[in-house]
Amino acid sequence: MFPELGLYLLAIANVSAVLLFGVPWLGRIKKAEQLKSYSKPLLRICAVSLVIASIILVNAFLGDDFSVSYVADHSNTHLASLYKVAAFWGGHEGSMLFWVLAMSLWGLTVRQKENITQEFVDNYRMFLGLVLAGFSTFLLFTSNPFARNLPDIPTQGRDLNPILQDIGLVIHPPLLFLGYVGLAIVFALALATLLKQRVEQSDIKLIRHHSIIAWVLLTGGNVVGSWWAYNELGWGGWWFWDPVENASFIPWLVATALVHQCTVSRRQQTHKFTMILALSGFLLALLGTFTVRSGIVQSVHAFAVDPERGLLLLGLLGIFLAIAVFQYLRAAPLLSSAAQKLSQQSKLLVLGNFVIIVGAFSVILGTYYPIIYQLFSGQSISVGPPYFNTIFVPIVVLSVVVLGIALNYRYPKLWASMLGASVLVAAGVTAYNDTLNGWLFAGVLASSYLIASIIAMLIMAAKTNKLSSLTQKSGAIIAHLGLAVAIIGATAVSNFEEDEVMRMGPGQGREIGNYIFVYEATTNVETNSYKAIQANIQVMDIDENLLGYLYPQRQTFKSNAIERTAAGTNWGLSRDIYASMGGQLSESEYLIRISIKPFVSFLWLGGGLIMIGGLLSITLGHRRTKRC
């Protein structure tokens, strides 16, 4: 009964979303203000319906209701309750329900306030209704999470994919999906702005506010996803340049440019590029959704392999793209009328944003060119890390240099001397390591120059008694410091990692770098979900002082006999010691891989600082708006 109720609620939500777009649009054509006023109750009906439907689906997971196909495919009686809840968004159908649920709830947060007219809010809800109608129709007719296994109800579910049975599933997908939802909100706000064919400060403030929230969530999604891959897949990599990873990275790059471009728009009243970025972020997120769910790429991250549903998502993308292009071309001639001559700092910010967009385009090209090539030629080609590193690393360095100049643009001698000093530091570090490694040089240059620029900005503010004026910029300062910390981590682990694969068994020891590893014993571990063979490896320094233990495992899941490797990690701020357990080589010996990863934790620390900086910018911006 309850699954059928969930399906009916999805139908109500779909009808409400269609009316949310159609009724205000009709009111606009007929000039009937009364029709526009229905947007708020319709959005509430849609949101409430989706909330109750989601509760029903979560309850089906917790109650092991295997009559629901989605539950049977993604759960099991042995699955921990936390993962049963997370399985709600762990597959295609549930994750799409999570999308529309979050979109409807987030949509309710935009309402009439000071300097925001009711007409603008109604137009925004109308375009949000368009997006909700598209997604809810797709969900209802192609991805029903309440479909039944009748009359043959299985007594046991297939279980959640073992790779997904990790805390990463609880955190990573919701953050990423919420980031996409934020870009959908920005998309609707941009269309509402273009509809009135003029851009006001309140519009840019609203777009910037939701853009920063979306950007923070996307940052968290990418950072946690990177940590999850590092922690879960057993080889210690933190970024694959996988097509599905790129599908979430590209919108993040565009959102990064948008956040900076909103600053230019607020200061200079130039809006064309801002509107393009505001529209593009969501469209690229939808392109990534198509990539993940269509089966056009093979990836451990993919949600579904269904070309037919992929084509429908591509159709949605085409519809939204056509509407966005039409609205932009209609309003573009009027957007430049208020434009002023850009200041030097604004020019640098625009240049930096352009560099970021070039970076996004290079990732798009590397991700989708092999797909297009195979489609037309029937032959396969691969574009891997060498392409992305060769193209993207110089772009990162260039964008950081432009950013550093923008922070201290009033003092050309200062930023020029800092740049020169950073080049010398990078050259010195590279030469000290007896190598002509360009990646090492680039990473040291970028991180050292960004840190030096931040310090110089603080020093000059103190000298000119303007330190208090930096309070409003503290969020941006912390976020940029986080970027520098993340670059340090990426540079260090990419260039100085020590890695060795060896044969080990009880009583055997090995020295790697400045550490000694002793294989103490092999033990058996059993949980509700899996059985495992575990290696207990002692970690000592060169003087044989105990530092800790590594516990890599080879797990076999009870529900489906799937085997996987679980890494063992000795965490540290300046280094991680990472171990994975391979196949059995003899009665007591196993293949063991041990890696020493210097400063890899700086990747996650830097990502956390970026998020904190973004959240602080939102808070300070909200306080400034209230004072105004």
TrEMBL record:
Gene Ontology BP annotations: cytochrome complex assembly
GO MF term list: heme binding; heme transmembrane transporter activity; lyase activity
Keyword Signal: no
Gene Ontology CC annotations of this record: plasma membrane
Domain Cytochrome c-type biogenesis protein CcmF C-terminal, residue spans: 314-619
Lineage: Bacteria, Pseudomonadati, Pseudomonadota, Gammaproteobacteria, Alteromonadales
Transmembrane stretches, start-end: 6-29, 41-62, 82-106, 127-147, 167-191, 212-229, 249-266, 273-291, 311-329, 350-372, 387-407, 414-432, 438-462, 474-496, 599-620
Keyword Endoplasmic reticulum part of the UniProt annotation: no
Family per record: Belongs to the CcmF/CycK/Ccl1/NrfE/CcsA family.
Gene source species: Paraferrimonas haliotis
Function: Required for the biogenesis of c-type cytochromes. Possible subunit of a heme lyase.
Compartmental location: Cell inner membrane
Domain (Cytochrome c assembly protein) ranges: 89-294
Keyword tags: Cell inner membrane, Cell membrane, Cytochrome c-type biogenesis, Lyase, Membrane, Transmembrane, Transmembrane helix
Bilayer topology annotation: Multi-pass membrane protein
Protein name (Swiss-Prot/TrEMBL): Heme lyase CcmF/NrfE family subunit
